[in-house]
Amino acid sequence: MKKTAVLGLGVIVVAIVAILFAAGRIGPSSNPSDSSPTTPADASQPASTTEPADEWPSDGAKQGVIDAAGLSDPSAVPEEPETDLTVKEDGTVIENRHLTSLQIRAANVTVRNVKITYRGSTWAIRADHERVDNLVIENVELDLGSTDSCAGIWQGAKPITVRDTEITGYNCDAVKAGGGGSLYEGVYIHSMRREDSDIHLDGFQPQGVDGLTIRNSVVEMDTDAGANSAFIATPGKDDEPVRNVLIQEVWFSGGNFIVASTVNKAADACHQVTIDGIAFSREYRYGPLSKNTGGFPDCGTVSRAIFEDTHAPID
C-alpha cells in the first residue's frame, strides 16, 4: 500500500514538471532567439546604450522657436501704441502694454507680453543705465522703424535676460549688446530691411562684451535688403575685444558673412566666439563665417555647423 502511494505521488510530480516545462516556467527559454546566459549580469559593466543620442536640429525645432516668440497673449495688448515709458522703481512689472519706447533705470524689472512700436532714431528698449540689474524681457514684440538708424535692444554694462522675443522692422539693428553675462534665448529676428538709407543692418552686435550666450534662436536677415550679418563681434568703445561668447543651437541667415568679426586695432584683442550647433542658410554674399584676422578659426571655435537645407557640414 505504501509502495502504491509512492508510485502515485511520482506520477503526479512528473505530470507537474511536464506542465511547467510546456508553459516555459522551467527549462530553456521559450524564445528561440534568446541566447542570453542565465547567470546574473556583471554589475561592473556599463548599462546598455541602445537609445540613439538626441540630434540637433530635430524636426520642427526651428518652427517651435518661431511660434513661441512674441506676445504670449495678443488679446491682452492694446492695438494702438500708448506712450513712451521710463521705469525708475525697482521691482516693476510691465505687462500687457503697447508702448512706443521703453527705458529702464531700475533693478529687478520684468517686461512681459509687451509690444513696442518704435519710430525714432535711437532705441526701442534702452537698458544701459547704471541701476539696471536683473532685467528680464520675455514674450515681447518689437516693431522697429527709423529714418536714420536705431537699435531694438540697447544693452549696457549689466547682464540682462531676453526670452521668446520677436524683433522686426526697418533701418535698425536688432540687438546691440554691451557688458557681459547676458542670455538671449528663443529670440526670433526677421524681416529686417533697409528703406531709403545706405546703412547696413545686423542681427546681434555684441560690442566689447565679456560673456554672452545666444541659444535656441532664429535670425533671418535679408542680404538684398541691406543686411550685413546675423551676428557680428565688434570692439567696445575703448577697443575692448568680445570674449566668452557662446552661440548654441541657432538658425542664422543673411548678410555679407552670416557670422562676422571685425578686425580689432589692439594687437592682443582677439574676439573669442564659440559656436556649438548652428544651421546656416545659403543666403549670404561671401560665406557663412568670416575668416579674416579676428575671425575664425584664429579667434573662435566651431562645432556642429551645418547647412540647413542638407544638414551637410560647412567647410
Can you offer a commentary on this structure?
By secondary structure, this protein is mainly β. The protein has a domain at 99-307. It is 10% helix and 43% strand. The chain contains 2 helices and 19 strands. The chain has helices at residues 2-23, 61-68, and strands at residues 84-87, 93-99, 101-104, 110-119, 123-127, 135-155, 160-163, 166-177, 182-185, 188-193, 201-206, 210-215, 218-221, 227-233, 243-253, 257-261, 273-280, 287-289, 300-307. An 8-stranded parallel β-barrel has the order 6-7-9-12-15-13-10-8. The longest helix is centred in the first third of the chain and has 22 residues, at 2-23. Residues 1-53 have low confidence and may be disordered.
Helix-strand layout with pairing:
Elements (H helix, E strand, L loop, with lengths): L1 H22 L37 H8 L15 E4 L5 E7 L1 E4 L5 E10 L3 E5 L7 E21 L4 E4 L2 E12 L4 E4 L2 E6 L7 E6 L3 E6 L2 E4 L5 E7 L9 E11 L3 E5 L11 E8 L6 E3 L10 E8 L8
Parallel strand pairs: 1-3, 2-4, 3-5, 4-6, 5-6, 6-7, 6-8, 7-9, 8-10, 8-11, 9-12, 10-13, 11-14, 12-15, 13-15, 14-16, 15-17, 16-18, 17-19
Radius of gyration: 30 Å
Q: Mean of residue pLDDT?
A: 83
SSE sequence, one letter per element: HHEEEEEEEEEEEEEEEEEEE
Strand order of the largest sheet: 6-7-9-12-15-13-10-8
| Individual helix count | 2
Number of separate strands: 19
- Report the sheet-strand fraction: 35-45%
What percent of residues adopt helix (DSSP H or I)? under 10%
User: Which outline best applies?
Assistant: globular
Low-confidence stretches: 1-53
Tell me about the largest β-sheet. 8 strands, parallel, barrel
**What class do helices, strands and sheet pairing give?**
mainly beta
**N- to C-terminal distance:** 93 Å
